[in-house]
Structure formats: C-alpha cells, structure tokens
Amino acid sequence: MRERLLFAAWLAWTALVISRYYVQLFRAVAVARLPSPADVAGAAIPVALVAGGSILLRVLLAKRALLGHRILLDNRAARPPVTSPGPPRSRQAILLVAGIMTVPWLLIRRDLVAALSELSAPGFPSIGEAGARSGAAFVGALLVAAAVLSGGAVVHRLIGWRTSCRVEGIVFTAVTGVGLVSYGSLLLAWAGIYHPTVVALLIATLILAGLPFSRHPTAERPLRDATGVSTTTVLWYALTAVALGYALIAALAPEKEYDALWYHLHLPRLWLEAGRPVDVIHEYISLYPLTWELVFGAGMVLGGTVGAKLLHFACLPLLALLVWQTARRYMPGVSPSAAAALVVTTPTLLWESTTTYVDLALALHSAAACYALVRYAGTSERSWAIVAALQFGLAAATKHLGVFVAIVALALFVAAARTHAGRIRLLRPAILIATLAAIVPSPWYVRAWAASGNPVFPEMFGLFGASPPDRWDAATDQGLALFKMHFGLGRSPSDLLALPWNVTVHGALFGGALGPLFLVLLPGLLLTRCHFPALKWLAWGVAAYVAIWASPISSFQLRFLMPIVPPLALIAAAALNSIALRTATAVPGGRTFTMGAVMCLAALNLPPFTALHEADRREWDGWLTHVLRESPVRVLSGRESEATYLRREVPSFGAWQAINAQLPARVRVLAFSGGDQLYAARSRISHDATEARGAIWGAGAQDLHAAVAALRRLEITHVLFDRRQPGGPNTDALGIASPRLQQACIPEYDDGRYWLCRLEYERLEYERLAPPSRAGLE
Q1: Burial 662-677 (b: 16+ CB within 10 A, else e)
Q2: Is the previous residue joined to 566 through a cis bond, with omega within 30 degrees of 0?
Q3: Are 256 and 650 contacting, i.e. CB atoms less than 8 angstroms apart?
Q4: Among 15-29, 114-128, 177-191, 307-321, where is mean pLDDT lowest?
Q5: Does 561 score more than 60 pLDDT?
Q6: pLDDT in tens, 506-538
Q7: At what angle do helices 291-313 and 196-209 cross, to 10 degrees?
Q8: How far is CA 596 from CA 239, 589, 732, in A?
Q9: Which of 37, 534, 728, 767 is 20 to 30 A off residue 226, Cα-Cα?
Q10: Is 750 helix (H, G, I), strand (E, B) or coil?
C-alpha cells in the first residue's frame, strides 16, 4: 500500500511540474496557435536526427557484433589471447608531424585564411570566409588538444599513474594536460616572452615531449557482444550525439557572449600583445584566476577565437564520458548512457560548451577531482591522490568557486569513514591532498593579493579591502553586490526551501535553465528503499555545494551551479531506474513508456524547443539567458559574413569597427558599452569603472567643472554613448550628458543606438581647457 501511495504521489508531482514548466506550450494550445513551417522544421530536425542516428548506430553495432563473433572463433581455433603492444605507430607519426608543423602553421595561417576568405559562390557570398574560419579553428584546436594529451601523458608517467580503462585514460590525460598548457603559458608570461610564436613553440614542445609516452603496453580489451546493447541505450546515445552536434555548430560561430568578449578572450589577447601579465586596474576581472584563459590564448594563437571556443566545447564530451564511466563503475543497474545524456542536454551546460565561459571547465575539473578521490579511497594508490589534488587545484585555479568544491569533497571524504578511528586515518591523506591542491592555484591568488591586498579580489572586500582606490572602493563593491542581488528571489527561509522549484520553473530569474527532468526524477528515489551507497554521498555533495551557492558570499546565477550537474545526472539516472522498475510492475509496457517519456523530455531541452522553457515570459519580460536558441547556420554556411553576424549579435560591434578603422591609435574612449572589449582595438575605459566615477556618476549637471577635470585626468578623447544605457546622452542629470558638455562633443559616428563623439575641450564656454595629452587626432 505504501508503495502505491508513493507512486501516485510521484505521478501527481510529475503532472504538476510538467504543467507548470511547459506553460508556454499549453498557452499556445489554448489559443489554437498553429505552428509555423519554421516551428515544424525546428521540431522535426532533432527527432529525425535521433531516429536516423539510432538506426545507423544499431547497424554499426550489429556489424561489429558479427565481426567480434568471427574473431572470437578464430582465437579459439588458433592460440590464446596475447597482450597488444600498445597504440599503433601511426599515432606517433601523427604527433611527430603535428609537432613539426605547429610553428609553420602559425606563420601561414593568417595568409591562408585571408586568401581563402576571398572565395564566394552564388547565394553564399562568404563561403570562403566561413570555411577558412572553421578549418583554421579545427586545425588550431587539434594542435592544442594534441599538446594537452601529450603533456598529460608526460605528467602521468612522472607520477606513476596508469589505468587499463580507456575512458579514464582519455579524460584524465586531457584534464591534466590542460594544466601543463596553462602553466607553461604563465611561465612564458612571467619571463616576458608570452608572444604568439613562443606559444606555438610551447605547443610544439609539448606535442613532441609526449612521443616517448604514446606507446605503452595495455591489456587487450576483449570485444563485447554488441547485440547486448538495448534499443533504449542506442536512443540515449543518439540523443547525446544530437545535443553535441547542436553545441558544435554553435561553437563554430564567431564569439558573441558578454563575459567571453569582456575578459575570457580579451585578457589573453592583452597578455599576448604585451608579452607579459597585464593588470588593467579599471577592470576588476583582470585579477581573476586565468588558468583556462591562457588555454584559450593558445587556441587563439593557432585557431583564432573559434579555436578557443572548440577547446571549451571539448569539455562537454569529456564530462559526459566521465559521468558515463562513473555510472558504469559505481552504480550497477543504472544506465550510463542515460546519465551522460542528462548531462549534455542540460540547457545551460549545453550553452556553456558553445562559448568561452569557464563554468563547464570548472564542472569538468570538479567531477574529475571527485572521481579520482573516490578511486584513491578504493585503491589507496598514491597516484590517484596526486591526480585528485591536481584537479582540485585546477578547479580553484579556474574559478573561486573551485575552492569550495575542494572543501566539500575533502570533508565528505573524511566523513565517509564509518568509525572515528577511520576518520583520523583519512585525515592525513586529506590534508596532503588539500596542501598540494592549494599549491596549484597559488600563483593566481598570490598575484591578486600582491596587486590589490585581497587574494580573492574582488570578493570579501569587507574583510580584505582593496588597493589602490582607483581599482575598487566601497561604492563599487556595493554596485557589484546590487548586480548579484537581482538574481533569484531572495534568501528568506521560505525562498531557500523553495529553491529547487524556483531554480527550475523560474529559471529566467536565475539566468539559465536546468530543464524539468531533475525536478521530476529525483523524488522517484522514494519509490524504492534499495539504493547504492554512492547516492548518499552524491546527495550530500550536491546539498553542501547548493548551500554555499545560496549563501550571501555567492550569487544566485544558475551557471554557477554547473558543478552539481554531473552528480545530479547520476542521481537522476538512478531515480529513473527506480521509476522504470516500479512502472514495469504496475503497468504492462510501463518501463518502455517511462523511458520514452523521459527521452522526450530530454529532447525538449534541445535548442529548437527553448521557447517552451520560458514559463515566466510575458511580452519582453521573463526571457531566458545563457541558453541556446537558434543554430548559426547562416554564418557557418557563408550566407552571411562574420561582420554582419556580429553587428546583429553584438550591438556595439559596428561602432568599434568604425573606431578601429577611423581613429588614431593614441585615442582613449570612455565607453557606455560592455561585453565588446575583444573587438575594441583602441584604449578604452568602461563607464562603470571605479576611476571613471568622477567623470560620470560623481558629477551632476551643475558640476560640469568636476566632470571635465575627471575626463582630462583620464585622458579621454572620445565618448561612446548608448542611447539605451543609463548615463547616455538623454540623461541630463549627469554632467557628461549635460547640454553644455554636449556642445563640446563633435559627432563622428551614429548608428541610431550608439553615438561616438570627439571631445573638444576648447568649445566649453565657461573655461578654455587644453586638450588631453593623448589627443592627436589630425
């Protein structure tokens, strides 16, 4: 009776979640809105891809099974199995050629891309540009990936790490090699030689250094009977492949996302131009840990901005492989393919793989660290402990939140011991792992402390403060806090208790989407009392991280929750197994129906159906951010140029194109725009910078002298106004937008939204002021 009541309660909960989450779908049905041809095509494409991919995969598996059966008969008739000598020599040859060609590729890439960009075809005027951009990006990303894998193999051989599992080998070699590429780049910057040619030499050196370690004996893996792969598993694999396909297409488009243009790509570009570390005082993000930014720098050198995007995209299949392997090793009976599919179809995580944000990279390092820690607990092999420490360190060197991931994981590692004596025994290795993990990111935290007096700048300003005053002050810190506070619904006890519901259903308030599946599936664990021990620790880990995320020291931005997506996917896959078993006993064909329904919900997480996830959308409010919507097929196929695409996606791109082309190199622009720094080739300072406050927010219309003095001190020659931005030319309350100062502005560009003017200080009626020292506009 209890089981029936719980099952009925779960069905009611599922109906409630689905009806509330997909309210846009029911609204469309209620008003009888017929789908447009574009809507029908968008909905049919993923279905057709999943179906076609499933059929193709089933055929390939059937052929493999037949081949495996023949080989097995031959082996029985001939001799017992022997060990393989290792990877074929062709792998060494490929690495050798890649290492030798890295520097020449750097030298010819720009000219080759320029030549190919001239090609065109009827209806596809920019097909040459599109093909050259994507081709160069693939080559550059593959060269960096080869360096990552070779470098990771070198590190693993030095620490004595080995595995007979191919998935573990691929994932951990990659996540370890990332650190070698990043910190090798950091050493070049410290030496003052961080230039494109030297970076290419670093990549070539790492590729060639891995040659001696690319061949090592491995136990031969027997061919498995592919006929044992169920249709359900094949469908999960096909769904995963379709999601990755959508992500890859979006990753091949030019970069357009705000933070990526602001600093994830802009800062490595500044470092490459200067050849050394650059601290931009008016940009607080310049003191963030920049581990992955330097990896993006290598991608930019060899493959352009799209090459950098592809490197971050690679984190998604690696994370899916790691989740698949975790379910396979530690959760028997749970579908590894379902767990992997739940990861890659999470909308915001899927979007992360298409841009150069670093939350996906943080999730990968965090998951790898926790997996390695569990492997160490089971094997007591020192190499696994070292790998875990390296990954915890790289997580902390990727983002400040990585520090909390390490704290939570190590605390649970010690707590996992059943007795007090066992906890004391685990305390020593936990301290050693924590110490090594702290050493890895220390250069970034020491750099921030030396430059600002705050090792986690700009966080914890109330505790550490910050210097110099032009970098940060209490007013700027309050402004950042207000920005963070506009996410979520508050931190009252009732709001915190309702977080799972609010984060899922009201995703627009948190800046992203998780999809409804986690909220639907997790209560299904209550339908059975038999659970894996791993589930308890996964649940504790998720709860601890969410508690930190929901605390005042963090922000209710949903992308900061990406490290919990892998454990959530594992828990949800286990819950799905429990639900399927329960429905199989309750209804004939219940398991098939359950799996099919969950697959359909997972497919609705794909980009063609993003509009259905906007439960709070009214007119222009409640729109989701940090999700994929349309595939950039036009720019990828060459139907439109990169410049046209960026003018549409980055509003200020056209203004910066004009500034770069028309203004001398010595100008300095005060910009009322953001998320466009990568495309600005002239010196600029943002309107919300601490040192710019005196020129804008600290000077009212009646205090024009203070505004002018601040502008002269900053050596501003031009102002880029945004008519939609507070403080634009229509805000007369500010000195910089007052009619008197506007008289000293000579318009040089106007596209209806952005207006660029040159400051002529001599035109001010009340006082003749000399032009700033950077003026040299003739």
Answers
A1: ebeeebbbbbbbbbbb
A2: no
A3: yes
A4: 15-29
A5: yes
A6: 999 999 999 999 999 999 998 877 777 889 999
A7: 70
A8: 12, 11, 60
A9: 534
A10: strand
* Torsion sign over Cα 367, 369, 371, 374: negative
pLDDT, residue 553, reads: 86
Q: Which residues pair with 621 in a beta bridge?
A: 618
Contacts of 25 (CB under 8 A, 6+ apart): 612
Q: What is the pLDDT of residues 719-754, one digit of tens each?
A: 999 988 754 444 555 667 677 777 778 889 999 999
Cis previous bond, 664, omega within 30: no
Q: Which residues pair with 745 in a beta bridge?
A: 759
Sign of CA dihedral 91, 96, 97, 101: positive
Cβ contacts of 255 within 8 Å, gap of 6 or more: 261, 265, 305, 306, 308, 309, 355, 356, 678
Q: Which helix (H) or strand (E) holds 756?
A: strand 754-759
The structure's pTM equals: 0.92
Domain residue ranges of the chain, discontinuous segments joined by +: 650-763
End-to-end Cα separation, the chain, in angstroms: 87
284-293 confidence digits (pLDDT tens):
999 999 999 9
Residue 416 has which token pair? 């996992």
Q: How far is CA 79 from CA 68, 74, 82, in A?
A: 16, 9, 9
Mean pLDDT of the chain: 87
Q: What is the mean pLDDT of residues 111-116?
A: 92
* Per-residue pLDDT, 215: 53
User: β-strands 718-722, 668-671: how paired?
Assistant: parallel
Percent of the chain with pLDDT over 70: 87
- CB of 53 closer than 8 Å to CB of 341: no
Long-range contacts of 502-508 (CB under 8 A, 24+ apart): 503/558, 503/561, 504/17, 504/21, 505/17, 505/20, 505/21, 505/615, 506/615, 506/616, 507/558, 507/613, 507/615, 507/624, 508/614, 508/616, 508/617, 508/622, 508/623, 508/624, 508/625
CA distances from residue 71 to 5, 195, 514 in whole angstroms, order as listed: 52, 52, 45
- Asked whether 613 and 601 are in contact (CB, 8 A), the reply is no
Phi, psi of 126 (to 5 degrees): -115, 25
Which tokens is 555 given?
């922000």
Nearest to 169 by CA among 214, 211, 224: 214
